[in-house]
Amino acid sequence: MKSIPILFSALLFLAGPCQADMQWRTIPAAGQMEAEKAALAPQLKELGQKLANDFRIKTADDVTSLRRGLIAAIWKPGNGIPGRLPDKATPGIIDEDFPGADITRLDVKMAKGALSRVFFLRGKGHKCLMITHEGHDEDREIRKKLVDLFLNDCDVLSIAMPGMGENRPPKSCGADHDSFAKLVSEDFSPLQFFFDPTAVSLNYALKNAPQGGYEKIGMFGLSGGGWTAAVYSALDTRIQRSYAVAGSYPRVIMPPGKDVGDYEQSTPELLSLADYSEIYLLASVPGRRHVQINNVYDPYCFDGWLGLSYGQFLSDQAKKYGGSYELMLDTTTNHHAVSEAAGQFIRKDFLGK
Hints:
Blueprint: H1 33-54, H2 60-75, E1 88-90, E2 102-109, E3 115-122, E4 128-133, H3 140-148, E5 155-159, H4 192-207, E6 216-222, H5 224-235, E7 241-245, H6 263-266, H7 268-271, H8 276-284, E8 289-295, H9 311-320, E9 324-330, H10 340-351
Parallel strand pairs: 4-5, 4-6, 6-7, 7-8, 8-9
Antiparallel strand pairs: 1-2, 2-3, 3-5
């Protein structure tokens, strides 16, 4: 299992909670690494064994069955991943963050009055497509950084979470995702608000792809966007490579009492069917690749060393089913962000240059 260079803290921690009041940590010196690894080893081994014992995917048929079950839970039996196109496509959008770019705004109308606006940025003759997802943060710099990593080489679909930016939440709810839970019924899952924009805009991009189609399709997200990238890629095998930064940890081994995010992170609609470890595997197979990157010194969430307990296990499982999973624990930043090291790794891994 490869990793971004790892530096260990003098503090023993496995995985921290999501917290509104971020506590900044100083990245420690490299010399503390071996002592920290030795101190954590027994706990990590125990947690890794628990995850392996609870892992429910045993065969290739289990992979197929679980994916179908998740799709049915979200879009209900008989519907499946949406095959429709956006309700409106508006070309010629001007965005000061991307001067001179060819941008089309895609309006995706959804149930309960919700609306998502996805931005399709096109190059000339690009043969790859990258879907970027900025998560909950409405900081334009985050969106720009994610898009800029790929805009010179790929067409890009830029997406934000429900209720963020120009997106309109369902009429009976605010932008607070926890309020979506009241909309759950036998006939409807609010998880559609999170995944319909990706499916519908991807349909549009594929219909308008360069001659010969895209040679490679990827998805890349930070925070809530990392969560979306992991889960959506588990559902839709059109995504060939996916990269989730600071988006989740397996629930089956999270320390008790940890706050693990909004409605979408913890809803039984997903977690009654699959642990996140199983979702990571689905995103990796068949013949695909999923990279999970968590920041060890993240001041907000999904920090710590929990990934060391399961990374190799999932890598081996992905190979078993003809795919690739890689875990990276990034120690080069103490922000809830895509570090320079992570960004360059993702770019090289996807583009091959």
